[in-house]
Amino acid sequence: MVDSVVSHLLTARQRPILPALPERSVLEAAVGGELPQAARDPEVVFDQLEKHLSRYSANFLHPGIMGWVAATPVPLAGLLGGWLNALRIFPHSWKLTAGSTHIETTVIRWLGQMIGFSDGAAGYVTTGGSFANMYAVCVARHRALGLDSRRRGLLAAPQLTAYASEHTHMCIRQSLGLLGIGEDHLRQIPVDTACRVRADALEARLQADIASGHKPFCIIGNAGTTNTGAIDDLEALGALGKKYAVWFHVDGSYGAFAAMCPETSGLFKGLSLADSVAIDPHKWLNIPFEAGCILLKSWDDLSEAFSHVPPYLRAGDTPSQHDHWHYGFELSRADRATKVWFELQHYGAKAYQKLIQSHIQLARKLAALIREDAEFELVAQPALSVVCFRYISHVPMDTDLLDRVNAAIEESYLAEGRVLFSGTVIAEKHVLRACIINHRTTWGDVREGLEAARRVGRRLAEGLTQRGLAAGKHNARQYELR
Ligand SMILES: Cc1ncc(COP(=O)(O)O)c(C=O)c1O
After folding, report:
1. Which residue CA neighbors atom 16 of ligand 1 most closely?
2. Cα(443)–Cα(436) distance, integer angstroms
3. Which of 64, 180, 345, 446 has most Cβ atoms within 10 angstroms of its Cβ?
4. Pick from 454, 470, 381, 468: which is nearest to 421 by CA?
């Protein structure tokens, strides 16, 4: 397995980003079939697995991968994960697994320090940002309604409402659904031209909800949206949280680590006002899956929402003896914190700060290039390392057709294989989106992403011209793109 990791690392750039899609029958023959009854040599089984699993999985080690929020794992932490699992070292309780338990609380404290949230943060290491955000919504719900609702449910409770920008990650909406509050009770507040939530609109909506008998319970600020990397005015949102006695949560899953960097730390002013922050080491710290984290100011916030001590788990828990069933929902879980601990020891926080700065510089360089280029339009000035842009052709096109050209360029990244930007929709326009958080990405890769968009954009535009469509605006309904 170690040899295989090494050979994949050595060929990371040569192998295409996206695998050829197999026929289902091919995979069925390779890794499907009947429940095995007899023993087999694990080396032979692994050979079979390696051949098919990596061939049909996207190559997330590739330096050109800049789609979605795709980091690439630092390899030693990946191997460490296997070591921890093989030995069943995991965070459970002080009595059984004090080392892993103490590392988890240490990592939580370090993460809180790194982003300037708190020097003594409480928290819980989760599978990722989605769960970290859900934990925050759960704690906020508990804060608003108290123990009674934890026991008796929400039926007798006032209707809770939460507030977040329209660009907020879908997991917040899902959390409201899963926690019985209802997805419709997430108020999606419009953003300004920099894609930051409009605090005035948020306050107006909150006041209207109070007036109609609802109970606002959570304001969610973004410290780096998925779409554009925008950072809300956290100071203003924190002040609103205080004014209306509403829990203030910040989703920093993607962006909060940039608070470490002197050039961008000012954008995160107000982060320390948050009651909780979601942060994802498996994003910008390039830690292998899974490593997300919810940070809070007090352990009591978690224990009031989660703690249960059934007779089969009785154990002590003083502040120095940490038993995890007081602070979260999962009982048996993998050790997710030790690989973060290991890589922070291995590289040091300063190296991560430099990495993040370098990604922000690459994003700014790309944005500057796009701004000067008549074939492209910069859709949002990058606050961090997400660059949203659009191919605009010299061939006149209506908005729908331009949308489809950009959607076709997005698709073409999936086919070309050397670099991958993804796409999104901003202000109802289909845009291309580079998110630079991969520690192997170079300026050459970023540049190639733009050139790939140009090549495909020109080919599509020329196709339209050749069909005699030089004059007048082409429109999406008339023409199939090829
Ligand atoms: C801002 C933000 N929040 C939450 C999430 C969800 O994180 P995860 O995929 O780790 O569950 C993401 C994922 O990209 C994100 O960008």
Report:
1. 226
2. 10
3. 64
4. 454
Ligand 1 centroid to residue 449 C-alpha, Å: 23
User: Is residue 226 a contact partner of residue 387, using CB atoms and an 8 Å limit?
Assistant: no
**Extended strands (E) in 238-316:** 247-252, 276-279, 292-296
Mutate to test the pocket of ligand 1, among 126, 130, 225, 388 (most ligand atoms within 8 A of CB): 130
Give residue ranges with CB within 6 A of ligand 1. 69, 128-130, 133, 169, 171, 225-226, 251, 253-254, 280, 292
Where do we find the tokens 């910040």?
A: 250
Give the pLDDT of the chain (482 residues) as one tens digit per residue: 999 999 999 999 999 999 888 999 999 999 999 999 999 999 999 999 998 898 899 999 999 999 999 999 999 999 999 999 999 999 988 888 999 999 999 999 999 999 999 999 999 999 999 999 999 999 999 999 998 888 899 999 999 999 999 999 999 999 999 999 999 999 999 999 999 999 999 999 999 999 999 999 999 999 999 999 999 999 999 999 999 999 999 999 999 999 999 999 999 999 999 999 999 999 999 999 999 999 999 999 999 999 888 888 766 556 557 888 889 999 999 999 999 999 999 999 999 999 999 999 999 999 999 999 999 999 989 999 999 999 998 888 888 889 999 999 999 998 877 999 999 999 999 999 999 999 999 999 999 999 999 999 999 988 877 665 544 555 555 555 54
Print the SS3 string covering 119-149: CCCEEEEECCHHHHHHHHHHHHHHHHHCHHH
- Nearest alpha carbon, ligand 1 atom 5: 129
Strand partners, 222: 251
- In this structure, are residues 189 and 164 in contact, taking their beta carbons and an 8 Å threshold? yes
d(CA 298, CA 296): 6
Please report the atom of ligand 1 found closest to the CA of residue 283: 10
Ligand 1 pocket check: which of 68, 226, 232, 388 to mutate, most ligand atoms within 8 Å of Cβ?
226
Tell me how far the alpha carbon of residue 334 lies from the centroid of ligand 1, in angstroms: 20
Query: Reduced to 3 states, what is the DSSP secondary structure of residue 294?
Result: strand
Buried b (16+ CB within 10 A) or exposed e, 335-367: bbbbbbbbbbeebeeeebbebbbbbbebbbebb
What residues have CB less than 8 Å from 184, skipping those under 6 apart? Answer: none
In b/e form, how buried is each residue of 302-318, taking b as 16+ CB within 10 angstroms? bbbbbeeeeeeeeeebe
Residue with CA closest to ligand 1 atom 14 = 69
Q: What DSSP state is assigned to residue 180?
A: T
